[in-house]
Write a structure and sequence with these properties.
Helix content: 40-55%
Distance between the termini: 37 Å
Shape: elongated
CATH architecture: 3-Layer(aba) Sandwich
Order of helices and strands: EHEEEHEEHEHEHHEHH
CATH superfamily: P-loop containing nucleotide triphosphate hydrolases
Structural class: alpha/beta
Number of strands: 9
Strand order of the largest sheet: 2-7-1-8-9
Number of domains: 1
Largest sheet: 5 strands, parallel
CATH class: Alpha Beta
Length: 211
């Protein structure tokens, strides 16, 4: 079975990072690709865990080298998904889950329409604002930029295959896991297994001929 790309996207503060952690705990077989960004590293973050934090010049050099599956300028910073790291997972046949901003998610889905795209909606704008404010990782100007951009980002939900409302973290994570499991049962993803089963019927058919 060939691995598929699972894209989790939302406006800033929608909870996509926390949801991916929950889903990966439920489904440890999932591959994961850490994105690159030029935004400053926040307190408590580790390079290579939340993101690979790189200088703008390095990021632009990587763009020129075709190193990214997608990249976008989000809230004044560059973000990108490594093509090489993604291919490493796909070559093992595993599904790959990635956290991507709304712009990047749309880019990937246009290139790879077979991707499983999941949009995370907050229950309301008030909840989104409260979550962003409570985490305290942005200054006032950046917070206002993220909230302002959210008005346009939520309208992009129609470009995704699935929408999850992140009212409760555990419930939303289980819903994402259910989508992934359901997608794995699609006919086109089980062709090899089905062929083996049908072959077993063919080899046994002669035993029952003429009855």
């Amino acid at each position: 079975m060939t691995g598929r790309l699972i894209i989790i996207s939302s406006p800033s503060g929608g909870g996509k990072g926390s949801l991916i952690k929950e889903v990966r705990a439920m489904m440890p077989e999932l591959g994961y690709s850490v994105s690159h960004t030029t935004r400053p590293q926040r307190f408590g973050e580790e390079n290579g865990r939340e993101y690979f934090f790189v200088l703008k010049e390095d990021f632009e050099r990587r763009i020129g080298g075709g190193d990214f599956l997608e990249y976008a300028n989000v809230h004044g910073n560059l973000y990108g998904t490594s093509l090489r790291e993604s291919e490493k997972v796909f070559n093992t046949g595993r599904d790959l889950i990635v956290e991507v901003d709304v712009q990047g998610a749309i880019q990937i889905s246009e290139k790879l329409p077979e991707s499983i795209t999941i949009f995370i909606l907050p229950p309301s704008f008030e909840v989104l604002k409260a979550r962003l404010t409570a985490r305290g990782t942005e200054g006032e100007a950046e917070l206002r930029t993220r909230l302002k951009n959210a008005f346009n980002e939520v309208l992009e939900y129609t470009k995704f295959k699935y929408v999850i409302v992140n009212q409760d973290l555990g419930t939303a994570a289980r819903q994402i896991a259910s989508i992934i499991n359901a997608e794995r049962q699609r006919l086109d993803r089980q062709s090899d297994a089905i062929r083996d089963i049908l072959d077993s019927f063919d080899t046994s058919k002669a035993e029952f001929q003429g009855e």
